[in-house]
Write a structure and sequence with these properties.
Layout (H helix, E strand, L loop, with lengths): L1 H5 L5 H7 L11 E10 L4 E11 L5 H6 L6 H18 L5 E6 L7 H15 L6 E6 L7 H13 L3 E7 L6 H6 L4 E4 L1 H4 L6 H16 L3 E4 L5 H9 L4 E2 L8 E2 L11
Parallel strand pairs: 2-3, 3-4, 4-5, 5-6, 6-7, 7-8
Antiparallel strand pairs: 1-2, 1-8, 1-9
Helix pairs in contact: 4-5
Length: 259
């Protein structure tokens, strides 16, 4: 019901957009946690990723398990609007990175409308939005997913591939479109300072991203050794428990002692 409450009082055309495709309302209350993506060269927060949680802080996996197929569209829209609303309420000035479900977007131009309305309503600048396409979700229609991302890029939004290297598409997805940001999955960054195989694989990915002018975020960094190794390989953007854990409805300051 969050969407209907948030947009209460707006014109019927907007309310009709909310109910499009006979979407069923998502009945559970949600909250958002934020985790910083840190630019270690500048020693500052580049962006905060919005991570969905239950009303009592339940994990994203728990929340996703409750989403029924006919609620996917409303759930995706609810997560976007809630992330923007919460970010503005907390005074976020950095980029806001939002995961989106490509299988929930039936028409890019229509489905982005609520996102833009939410940003306008609360005063969050749309040019500070990043949309992350996660490789962890099997994409039913790859051509459709690419059309969504390209539409977002034409509108001036930053785009990212999340969980790169541990999902369904890998380099095939990168060959089809070049996002602004590639986020290396923690499966590639874990213990990389002690693993020559991972060093070789990540080195190849970094070379490809540099040639394609894509910035790279190292996800899941937990040790000073991992950070130092990746930094020596040219990575500047980091996200992980070493710097900051996600905080529910708060913007955590990163721990820069190891930077």
């Amino acid at each position: 019901m969050y969407l209907q409450e948030f947009f209460a009082g707006l014109d019927d055309d907007v309310q009709g957009c909310i109910r499009c495709r006979n979407a069923q309302p998502f009945p559970h209350r949600l909250k958002v946690a934020f985790q910083p993506i840190v630019d270690v060269t500048r020693r500052e927060v580049f962006a905060y990723e919005a991570l969905i949680r239950g009303a009592n802080g339940e994990s994203a996996a728990t929340v996703l398990a409750a989403v029924q197929p006919d609620q996917t569209y409303t759930f995706d829209q609810t997560c976007r609007v809630l992330a923007i609303d919460t970010a503005q309420r907390l005074g976020m000035k950095e980029y806001l990175s939002i995961n989106f479900l490509p299988n929930a977007v039936y028409e890019p131009a229509t489905c982005i409308r609520l996102t833009l309305l939410a940003a306008h309503k609360v005063g969050f600048p749309p040019d500070k939005l990043i949309f992350e396409l996660t490789e962890a979700e099997r994409i039913n229609n790859p051509a459709h997913a690419l059309r969504i991302v390209k539409d977002y890029q034409m509108r001036g939004f930053l785009t990212a591939i999340d969980d790169f290297g541990a999902g369904y598409s890998g380099l095939n997805l990168l060959a089809e479109f070049q996002p602004h940001i590639v986020k290396l999955d923690m499966a590639l960054t874990r213990d990389i300072d002690r693993d020559r195989v991972r060093q070789a694989i990540v080195g190849g990915v970094l070379g490809t991203c540099k040639a394609l002018q894509c910035r790279v975020v190292a996800e899941g960094v937990e040790t000073p050794g991992e950070l130092e190794q990746l930094r020596s390989m040219g990575v500047e953007l980091f996200q992980g428990y070493l710097l900051a854990k996600p905080a529910l409805e708060a913007l955590p300051e990163p721990d820069l002692r190891h930077v």
